[in-house]
Design goal:
The structure holds two protein chains of two kinds.
Chain A (H helix, E strand, L loop, with lengths): L5 E6 L1 H12 L3 E9 L2 E8 L5 E7 L4 E3 L9 H11 L2 E3 L25 E5 L11 E7 L2 E8 L7 H5 L4 H8 L7 H16 L5 H29 L3 H22 L8 E2 L2 E2 L7 H25 L1 H7 L7 H6 L4 H5 L8 H5 L18 H25 L18 E8 L4 E8 L5 E7 L6 H8 L7 H8 L4 H4 L1
Parallel strand pairs in A: 1-4, 5-6
Antiparallel strand pairs in A: 2-3, 3-4, 7-8, 8-9, 10-11, 12-13, 13-14
Helix pairs in contact in A: 5-6, 6-7, 6-13, 6-15, 7-8, 8-13, 13-15, 14-15
Chain B lengths: L1 H9 L12 H11 L11 E7 L5 H8 L12 E3 L8 E5 L4 H13 L5 E5 L1 H5 L21 E3 L6 H22 L2
Parallel strand pairs in B: 1-2, 1-3, 3-4, 4-5
Classes of the chains: A alpha+beta, B alpha/beta.
Bound molecules: iron/sulfur cluster (SF4).
The site of iron/sulfur cluster (SF4) has 12 residues of chain B, from helix 3 and helix 5.
């Protein structure tokens, strides 16, 4: 059950630099970069073998060789690491703070004729999370978008250090509210890897059930929200209704609409009630009945497709360089899904497809979601049909395993792969924990995707990415 | 498309009946709202939502208020894009240090009379993040709060009951206080 293939090694400076060079060459994908006093850590995946490894390098005098110097996706994580832990990345090209907001912030210059700037946020016009977007535009055309994030920074990593497992699990479940199941799952799997815990099969299957319901709810909401940003209200209303039906079914079955705190280290905290299977089957039937009509309207409404086709194109090369997860990567040709690679129970026993397209525009990101809704419905049915009996958690909770250790996990949330790493002390507390939201490697790509588009298409592009602020800001 | 419109037409209204205003919220509001003599607003309030560092869970449920089953706008409650158009600030999150100034400026940009509603357990006292140096720890540390809506996150029904209580109190106060 715990991901078996995470190697762990402490490297010399030269090896660290060599790993950075292999990232630059595209042989490795960066899954995360974080640290603690004295050490910087990096999670990597071999592009060819899919082998995962956590590398660490000692930081004498709090310095280490910057990875962002040669591999741009590491720039923001390194800026954050300096803000949070005080480790100095030697040679990092961007020396500005990232999560710490004190003093003036210098936006990157854009030079040329007739350019003007449009500052947006951190308080936006809609009901969304806080962040700042600085557009430089020539007339209607975006020449440069620069994001400034960190407004939702809550100090999660610092709160994790020294926390009990219960408290840490609650914090993990609130890293990004829309991905509460997936974040809890990533954290729980990392803890189970650290303590060499084997969870009961029923727990693993119930986790997958919760995770697919979460994916379903979010994708339905997102497809409607993209339509809304193209001013097509009827689909927004219809998809909003379907999303609400999923949340109500989740509430009826598991006692919480978003299913917070249901996945815990060692298992799950709730069972499927006696009428749960009937309710969920009815939900699946309802979505199956209504969904195709809505998709037909989406596909056949010229005014809507006019907004989404060809808008906000992300190139496959960038998606690959940033190892962009989820619909952002899969709409730009990156064939990756953490449920399959490295994979975790019970997905090896379930049948599902991972849709991939190459167009990379808003429409492609919508279509990946459409296909994934269909896959999740099928997965929910398979899980309901084959849910194994048995207990919901290890008999003695997390204490059933060994006392202390270190573990990592990669889990597929609706938005993409979530990486979790944790070290547990002998008294059963979290010594250090880092959760890397998929948005870390998607936000920078939004800046690239919007270039050359009109300002009015930004909401559409932004919604099609739907990056997390809270998950990123820690 | 035509099929969808026809189906919407024949299936009748999906919107559900309104829940009763929350008693506890009415009590909390009675003390604050009646102190001031506000000009009559009628039965309508414009709400500006401010995410002051939430996990986004609260926003998801606030969003749900707009779906066809809850249909917030039928009560005269609506979300507006600018604080300058707002009567109410609905604030979520433990107030991250990085959002403090933006929250204060949003409050200052909101014309009087105005009310502040703290939404969710984080907004009440910082919740899970109360001990974090990166958080101020609750909306009332920064702004005068008129009403707390509990929950992590509050469900749409709980949100609706709290907001309806606010609407009732404001309307009653406007009647009692005269113009
Ligand atoms: S109250 Fe709960 S749901 Fe709302 S922001 Fe706080 S942690 Fe998230």
């Amino acid at each position: 059950m715990p991901t078996p293939n995470w190697q762990r090694s402490i490297k010399r400076r030269e090896d660290w630099e060599q790993a950075a060079a292999r990232l630059q060459d595209g042989e490795l994908a960066l899954l995360g970069l974080w640290g603690e006093p004295g050490f910087a850590h990096m999670a990597l995946m071999e592009q060819t073998t899919d082998a995962c490894v956590v590398l660490s390098v000692e930081c004498p005098a709090n310095r280490y060789p910057s990875v962002g110097r040669v591999h741009a996706p590491a720039i923001r994580p390194e800026r954050a690491l300096r803000d949070l832990v005080g480790l100095e990345p030697e040679g990092l090209p961007d020396t500005r703070p990232w999560l710490r907001h004190d003093g003036d912030y210098r936006f990157l210059p854009a030079e040329g004729e007739s350019l003007h700037q449009i500052p947006v946020g951190p308080v936006h016009a809609g009901i969304i999370e806080p962040g700042h977007f600085r557009f430089t535009a020539n007339g209607e055309t975006v020449v440069r978008l620069e994001e400034r994030l960190g407004y939702a920074h809550k100090g999660v990593n610092a709160l994790m250090a020294g926390a009990s497992l219960e408290r840490a699990a609650a914090l993990a479940g609130r890293l990004s509210g829309d991905s509460t199941v997936a974040c809890s799952l990533a954290f729980a799997q990392a803890v189970e890897a650290a303590l060499e815990l084997e969870i009961p099969p029923r727990a693993a299957w119930l986790r997958a059930l919760l995770a697919e319901l979460e994916r379903l709810a979010n994708h339905l909401g997102d497809i409607g929200a993209v339509c809304n940003d193209a001013a097509f209200a009827i689909l927004h209303a219809q998809f909003g209704l379907l999303r609400e039906r999923v949340l109500r079914a989740a509430d009826a079955c598991f006692g919480h609409r978003l299913m917070m705190d249901r996945v815990v280290p060692g298992g799950v905290s709730c069972d499927l009630p006696p009428d749960g299977e009937r309710r969920l089957r009815a939900l699946v039937a309802q979505v199956r009945k209504d969904f195709p009509d809505l998709i037909e309207v989406y596909e056949n409404t010229a005014s809507l497709k006019d907004r989404t086709v060809g808008t906000g194109i992300l190139t496959p090369a960038l998606a690959r360089q940033y190892a962009a997860g989820g619909f952002v990567g899969r709409a730009s040709g990156r064939d990756f899904d953490a449920r399959r690679t490295p994979g975790y129970a019970p997905y090896e026993a379930l049948h599902f497809e991972v849709p991939v397209v190459h167009a990379g525009d808003v429409n492609a990101r919508v279509w990946i979601r459409i296909r994934e809704v269909e896959q999740s419905l099928a997965l929910i049915e398979q899980i309901l049909a084959r849910l194994p009996p048995g207990s919901l958690a290890c008999p003695d909770g997390p204490r059933s395993g060994r006392d202390a250790g270190e573990g990592a996990a990669l889990v597929e949330g609706f938005r993409g792969d979530i990486f979790a790493w944790v070290r547990i002390t002998p008294d059963g507390r979290v010594e250090r924990c880092h959760l890397r939201d998929p948005s870390w490697f998607q936000w920078p790509l939004l800046e690239a995707a919007i270039e050359g588009n009109i300002v009015a298409d930004f909401p559409l592009c932004n919604k099609s990415f739907n990056c997390s602020y809270s998950g990123h800001d820690l | 498309m035509r099929r969808l419109l026809f189906k919407s037409f024949v299936q009748g209204t999906l919107t559900e009946p309104a829940p009763a205003p929350d008693e506890r919220a009415l009590a909390e509001l009675a003390a604050r709202v009646s102190q001031a003599s506000h000009r009559r607003l009628g039965r309508a309030l414009s709400i500006r939502e401010v995410d002051a560092g939430s996990c986004n869970g609260c926003e998801l449920e606030i969003h749900a208020l707009g779906n066809v089953l809850y249909d917030l706008e039928r009560f005269g409650l609506r979300f507006v894009a600018s604080p300058r158009h707002a009567d109410v600030l609905l604030v979520t999150g433990p107030v991250s240090v990085n959002m403090r100034e933006a929250l204060e400026r949003t409050y200052r940009a909101t014309p009087d009379p105005k009310w502040v509603v703290a939404c969710g357990d984080c907004a009440r006292d910082g919740g899970l993040y109360a001990a974090s140096p990166a958080c101020v720890g609750g909306v009332s540390k920064v702004l005068p709060v008129d009403l707390h809506i509990p929950g992590c996150p509050p469900t749409p029904v709980v949100l609706l009951r709290g907001l309806l209580a606010l609407l009732e109190s404001v309307a009653a106060d406007a009647r009692g206080g005269g113009t």
